[in-house]
Structure formats: C-alpha cells, structure tokens
Amino acid sequence: MTRLSGSSPKTLKPDPIKLQALGAAIRQQRRAKGLSLKDVSTTTQKSIATLSRIEAGRQSVDIDTLLRISETLDFSAGLFLIQVQAKHGHSEAELRMWNSLRKILA
Length: 106
Known about the structure:
The protein contains 6 helices and no strands. It has helices at residues 16-32, 37-44, 48-55, 63-73, 77-88, 92-105. The chain starts with 15 loop residues before the first helix and ends with a helix. The chain is globular.
C-alpha cells in the first residue's frame, strides 16, 4: 500500500447493512437445510452465541468461519457474498452485474 507523507491508513468498518444481509442469507440457507444453530455449531466448532450474532448481523465473519459455515450448509461462500452484493451494490450497473452473476452461479 502506498502512503502519502503524513497520511495514516484508512480504517474500514464493516457495513452493518451488508453484515445483516450476509447473516440473513446464512440463516435462510441453514433453515432451508433443516439445521439448528447447534448442528452448525458442532460442525464449525463455533459457539451457538457466535453463530447467532453472525446471523443477526451483529458480528462480522472471518473467512475461515464463513468457509466452515458454507461447507456445513453445502453452499458456496462466494454465493453468499454475491447475494449480499446483488442486494446492496452501490450503483445500478453494479447491481445488474451482481444479479447476472448470481443467476449464472445459482
């Protein structure tokens, strides 16, 4: 990363709307598979409380946890992210692109 003299790196905070959308997508897929939080907790080695916070959008998800959840739910981690971007992209062109990609991968 290139820094200008006297500048400090920008700290990016998670977008709460996107965290909620990701959590909702995970919850929807878990329920569609007929799994409880306890079932997912057992296979991911994450606590029920942690998984509950993730599904509620109150906790961000590290890549390892997202991959474990995805494997447990037999659902692509990338598709979770595409779903979030498709619903919460920044421009109309970006929304169309993400929706097209989601249809291709679904």
